[in-house]
Design brief:
Layout lengths: L1 H14 L4 E4 L9 E4 L1 H6 L1 H61 L11
Antiparallel strand pairs: 1-2
Amino acid sequence: MEDLAWRCENIANETGCWFFMGAQHPGATSPAIHYTSPKLVDEDLDGAEQLANLWVTLANALCCSRCEDALELVKHAGLIEKEKEALLHERARQLALFQEYQTWYGSLPGPPRESE
């Protein structure tokens, strides 16, 4: 990231432009970074601060929404796992009941075959 800040500084110095750049990796654990050119700060300090604050707020919101999405997926996976366990339990109960019926009534014939 230091290289990126250096490049931003060079662009701002070479062009004399108002320059703002913000960056945040979606999986980062560190805060968002930003660069504001001296020209932008000199000519509109309040605007530059608002721009930087807006960027940090946006980056935080994006990261939080990714976390919320991941948590929602984890919750959904947990619900699916519970449903799967319930279905397996019901299947085992029905299989045991079928085996009990087979013991009581002997072998049950299958459905009649169609003649060809």
